[in-house]
Amino acid sequence: MTSPPSILVVQTAFLGDLLLCIPLLKNLRRYYPEAKLGIVCRHGMRKLIENLNLVDEIYTVQKSAADSYQEALIDINKAPYHTVFCVHESLRSHFFVSKIKANHKLSYKKWWNFLFFQQRIERPMYLPEPMRALSLLAAYNQDFQIEYQKEMNAILEEENFLSSGKYHHHISENFNMRVPVPPLRPFKKEYMVIAPGSVWATKRWTVQGFADAAKYFLDQGMEVVLLGAKEEIAICNAVATLCPEVKNICGKTDLWEALRWIAGAKLLLSNDSGPMHMAAISSTLNICVFGPTTLNLGYRPWQNQAFIVQKDLSCRPCGKHGHQRCPIGTHECMESISAKEVVAVWENDLYANI
Predict the structure, then answer these.
(1) Is 23 in a helix, a strand, or coil?
(2) What whole-number distance in Å separates Cα of residue 132 and Cα of residue 250?
(3) Sign of dihedral through CA atoms 342, 343, 347, 353?
(4) How far apart are CA 327 and CA 315, in angstroms?
(5) Which of 109, 138, 157 is the last residue of a domain?
(6) pTM to 2 decimals?
(7) Which end of the chain is flanked by fewer CB atoms within 10 Å, N or C?
(8) Radius of gyration of the chain (CA)
């Protein structure tokens, strides 16, 4: 296939899903350096994507505002794109793509979307999400397909990437999420970041657990920073109430500033949430507490310096994203994880190797 003069990527899901598209964006730029590269994402993410310098054009939509989709379409079709990669699987996104003027559109195969795309492929659910997104490029470009197949084989050979601990040892340079980010250095001494929030309540580790972990790192001589969105102020305040020595900046940063805080940190302690994927961008050490979700769902941290703390329970996973309430009423997947277990990862694995 001849080199396209312009390429548009559509991913209007949550922050984590968008960030997991970074390897796709990086490889589109690498294989088509002269092409105009654009992205459609959720409202509120423009500044972050703009500062990562991954694309030339950014179009944002607001899920609750149909007019925002129409406005984005008008802007996109002013200078029509040649090729559209639709990573998001929703009917709304596919219907949106059907109205984009483009020579070639490709996405994952659904029984109902054959009218929307010239090229559809099976979504490889056995692979991590970044490799799923990259499968679209592999289907589109035969040269990249060879490179992709080699990387995929290397990943599948490492069975330990689904276990607890340092789950993944093989991510090649061209397939990682690293992007240059200017780190913040606000203290004279090292600091670590705690991000206790999540859109889904069952994906949040306990307030007591985060507070106890914060006390441990404070005792180790680190500054501890609480980070989160405005919607997470309540949970950050609850942690700060139990551990008043922390610096609580929850709700006081935008996404780009939050990324810079994480980039400058010695360590990020988080749930399976957006900040976990921010740590992968800057290769910041990351301890991730997993509860209702599991690694084999594919939305795991995509870097070589992430450790997973989780419990092997028959009820996991209870859903793709977690829930607002535990389906069986116990929330054992999170309640049973102690701060000692989380701290042990730092003492025995991370700190010993830095």
Answers:
(1) helix
(2) 32
(3) positive
(4) 9
(5) 157
(6) 0.94
(7) N
(8) 20
